[in-house]
């Protein structure tokens, strides 16, 4: 078991657990701004039961890391836009915003806080349990499940179409045996942890490349070329797109997947819960004949997520690209965008980062 103080010293380890924001609410209730996604510096200080200056000091020392986890300092037009979007009444000329990931990041950097220490201990308890379980192999088809296999057992026969390709078998071995072995070594080793983490990342990169290579080969060997498959996805009706995305969520371990009707959806097409318990709201847009998703659609969805209750993951899936302004709105409101290329890769078997 890793000591919780290791989180204070290892940025790579902190980055590897940033998605486990549900830990915050398990330790103590975190109050959010009216937008349902962010908190201010004062709210972060209240959560960790420290002074505001303590939070400002952490931000000053680790600004780049916190910005990578979503911390923003709003001024000018951005600040006015956020006030209009969230309904905040304030005359301040700047406003520091922390999404839940950044608050969790603060917990892993704040030394003199009992609450922060509780978060770190709880977080590492959960991470230890997760890392000692067999890792799912992303190369497998949705119909083939190997989750019951022991990580040290001999790999079973590959699914049809896979046994003739050595890259598929290697990817399976990496995902089911080598990566779990590194997880156990990292959890128990102190002296060479960083080297092991780097090696594990290299192995995971190799596994992902093999999976992509295998998918390309399969696409070339199938009767329908990859371009035709992509075209069929893009030509889906809106209803078919929504149900297709719901199926992808179920395939990747999401539970409570519910397709909402136009009357009850209120701007949210799907609600679900990720495999690790985070709440999720999804909007699907089939914009055939349009080049990009406009910013107005992102604003409406960001507002709609507040109506359905607490949302940890807001996902906007589109059959086209997003305009620059739309992406800026998404970054500001915490919405994760999935454009045409990412959607097609997701449909081909690549897990979305938001679901990992």
From TrEMBL:
Pfam families in the record: Mrr_cat
Region of interest: Disordered: 139-158
Any GO BP: DNA restriction-modification system
GO molecular function annotation: DNA binding; restriction endodeoxyribonuclease activity
Signal peptide (UniProt feature, chain positions): none
Residue intervals of the Restriction endonuclease type IV Mrr domain: 233-346
Compositionally biased spans, kind Low complexity: 140-152
Protein name as it appears in the record: Restriction endonuclease type IV Mrr domain-containing protein
Source organism of this protein record: Streptomyces echinoruber
